[in-house]
Amino acid sequence: MKILVPVKRVIDYNVKPRVKADGTGVDLANVKMSMNPFDEIAVEEAIRLREKGAATEIVAVSIGVQKCQETLRTALAMGADRAILVLTEDVVEPLAVAKILKAIVDEEQPGLVILGKQAIDDDSNQTGQMLAALLGWGQGTFASKVEVAGDTVTVTREVDGGAETVNLKTPAIVTTDLRLNEPRYASLPNIMKAKSKPMATKAPADYGVNTTPRLTTSKVVEPAKRVAGITVPDVDTLVAKLKDMGVAA
Amino acid sequence: MKTLVWVEHDGAAVKDATLSAVTAAGEMGEVHLLVAGQGVDAVAQAAAQIAGVGKVHVADDAAYAHALAENVAPLVVELMGHHDAFVAPSTTNGKNIAPRVAALLDVSQISDILSVEGDGVFTRPIYAGNAIATVQSSDAKLVVTVRGTAFAKAAASGGAGVVEAVSAGGDQGLSSFVGSEIASSDRPELTSAKIIVSGGRALGSEDKFHELIDPLADKLGAGVGASRAAVDAGYAPNDYQVGQTGKIVAPEVYVAVGISGAIQHLAGMKDSKVIVAINKDADAPIFQVADIGLVGDLFTVVPELTAKL
């Protein structure tokens, strides 16, 4: 079985994003970028499934600017076999991403597509579900455990009150939650090897997908700042403050 | 505009998240509800009582029992033939189902809205809540999910909705429910609690977490939350996690105990009315958002606080 893993290049999760003064967006110039943390988990899970013999080939895909190839090289260094870069300067919304991925799925015929549950930049949490809808496949979102047996995949999902397990007929879509696994670091020899792994470059038009945004962002602002707080010297003062607020009797 | 709101329920009662979604939907237009599940008469009756609700569509079928997106989405799409917007609370069910509906309708979804600014115009948080974007949809139909803490809850009574049975495709045969482990708790539900006491990695062990956090929460009648570090270390279950990838809360009072205050944690609680932080590191980022900070060792401070309340 082939596994397709879409990965996104996003602002590094440790960086505090700065809103541009003109309100057009978040300033990404000279900011450290990395692979979206949930996508690292997706790559790791695909590799583990291959190590268990449940998968034969892992194809990583990224959609975006030329620099997304660095993200794909990271996936290759972790263990993906080859990569596809869909090159575009546009901001591509989850629906268009899902459409491009659908076209790639039609071409590659994977048994499983593993995505991150959300990208930490737009925080949408949509692409996996949308891709499942377009393909008419089952979806195992927010996965904390994935088991492949024959033509089914059993996914334990993190839901509001605890965990839930579903069986999906393959081919299927899985989106990863944080608890699914601990992604490995790419070793130096593997980073070197990754440089010679195949990477195809495509364009959205090759897949017949129009990436014109359906949503227009009119402005981006900073959230309201909190008023500076106070430090209390001891528990008694804290208790008194809580009582003032009516929290404690 | 006619909106269709996904009713989040546990088979017996309507969840609070639904009430916030109804308020958001009310700002967009006429509110209709969808109650999907198995044996959901009581839920449908309760839903009809929610203030401001027009029609309540009830889909009672084994296929909808566990809110599997594969089965529910086609049902919603059919109902969207005579609705202009699908509104779901940002619960795990809402987040699972809504994008599937959006893609089937060929429209973009707007996730986790904070406000309704106008016809098809909304604000939503991006970059872990470090920026707020105003977005406008150009699609013929809207699909949005609603951040519960950003909207007041609609009154659960006083409404006179008309209950109407609907049926649709039933089981699509793509997925099946195997089982669930739902943590039982007598404490207030995290996302609707007025007070939350949250513990972090500094607690050191599961035992200490229960020994220190639970009594303080009980004293305050509070819900219990945790940071990712505490959850990953096994001190608390996953569904306690507050943050960008866990639950988003905005209680009256949030007490952060032994939590440093990483961006990802702040994303889940910085809209709390009052934030109280207890940490021995005076430079911890949590103190930058805390209204009341106490620098001290939680192992001595927390028991003392619990005793003095």
From TrEMBL, chain A:
<dbReference type="InterPro" id="IPR014729">
    <property type="entry name" value="Rossmann-like_a/b/a_fold"/>
</dbReference>
<dbReference type="InterPro" id="IPR012255">
    <property type="entry name" value="ETF_b"/>
</dbReference>
<dbReference type="InterPro" id="IPR033948">
    <property type="entry name" value="ETF_beta_N"/>
</dbReference>
<dbReference type="GO" id="GO:0009055">
    <property type="term" value="F:electron transfer activity"/>
</dbReference>
<dbReference type="InterPro" id="IPR000049">
    <property type="entry name" value="ET-Flavoprotein_bsu_CS"/>
</dbReference>
<dbReference type="InterPro" id="IPR014730">
    <property type="entry name" value="ETF_a/b_N"/>
</dbReference>
<protein>
    <recommendedName>
        <fullName>Electron transfer flavoprotein subunit beta</fullName>
    </recommendedName>
</protein>
<comment type="subunit">
    <text>Heterodimer of an alpha and a beta subunit.</text>
</comment>
<comment type="function">
    <text>The electron transfer flavoprotein serves as a specific electron acceptor for other dehydrogenases. It transfers the electrons to the main respiratory chain via ETF-ubiquinone oxidoreductase (ETF dehydrogenase).</text>
</comment>
<keyword id="KW-0249">Electron transport</keyword>
<dbReference type="GO" id="GO:0046395">
    <property type="term" value="P:carboxylic acid catabolic process"/>
</dbReference>
<comment type="similarity">
    <text>Belongs to the ETF beta-subunit/FixA family.</text>
</comment>
<dbReference type="Pfam" id="PF01012">
    <property type="entry name" value="ETF"/>
</dbReference>
<feature type="domain" description="Electron transfer flavoprotein alpha/beta-subunit N-terminal">
    <location>
        <begin position="23"/>
        <end position="211"/>
    </location>
</feature>
<keyword id="KW-0813">Transport</keyword>
Automatic annotation (TrEMBL), chain B:
<feature type="binding site">
    <location>
        <begin position="241"/>
        <end position="245"/>
    </location>
    <ligand>
        <name>FAD</name>
    </ligand>
</feature>
<keyword id="KW-0813">Transport</keyword>
<dbReference type="InterPro" id="IPR014729">
    <property type="entry name" value="Rossmann-like_a/b/a_fold"/>
</dbReference>
<dbReference type="InterPro" id="IPR029035">
    <property type="entry name" value="DHS-like_NAD/FAD-binding_dom"/>
</dbReference>
<dbReference type="Pfam" id="PF00766">
    <property type="entry name" value="ETF_alpha"/>
</dbReference>
<comment type="function">
    <text>The electron transfer flavoprotein serves as a specific electron acceptor for other dehydrogenases. It transfers the electrons to the main respiratory chain via ETF-ubiquinone oxidoreductase (ETF dehydrogenase).</text>
</comment>
<keyword id="KW-0274">FAD</keyword>
<feature type="binding site">
    <location>
        <begin position="258"/>
        <end position="265"/>
    </location>
    <ligand>
        <name>FAD</name>
    </ligand>
</feature>
<comment type="similarity">
    <text>Belongs to the ETF alpha-subunit/FixB family.</text>
</comment>
<feature type="domain" description="Electron transfer flavoprotein alpha/beta-subunit N-terminal">
    <location>
        <begin position="3"/>
        <end position="181"/>
    </location>
</feature>
<keyword id="KW-0285">Flavoprotein</keyword>
<feature type="binding site">
    <location>
        <position position="279"/>
    </location>
    <ligand>
        <name>FAD</name>
    </ligand>
</feature>
<dbReference type="InterPro" id="IPR014730">
    <property type="entry name" value="ETF_a/b_N"/>
</dbReference>
<dbReference type="GO" id="GO:0033539">
    <property type="term" value="P:fatty acid beta-oxidation using acyl-CoA dehydrogenase"/>
</dbReference>
<dbReference type="GO" id="GO:0050660">
    <property type="term" value="F:flavin adenine dinucleotide binding"/>
</dbReference>
<dbReference type="InterPro" id="IPR014731">
    <property type="entry name" value="ETF_asu_C"/>
</dbReference>
<dbReference type="Pfam" id="PF01012">
    <property type="entry name" value="ETF"/>
</dbReference>
<keyword id="KW-0249">Electron transport</keyword>
<feature type="binding site">
    <location>
        <begin position="227"/>
        <end position="228"/>
    </location>
    <ligand>
        <name>FAD</name>
    </ligand>
</feature>
<dbReference type="InterPro" id="IPR001308">
    <property type="entry name" value="ETF_a/FixB"/>
</dbReference>
<dbReference type="InterPro" id="IPR033947">
    <property type="entry name" value="ETF_alpha_N"/>
</dbReference>
<feature type="binding site">
    <location>
        <position position="201"/>
    </location>
    <ligand>
        <name>FAD</name>
    </ligand>
</feature>
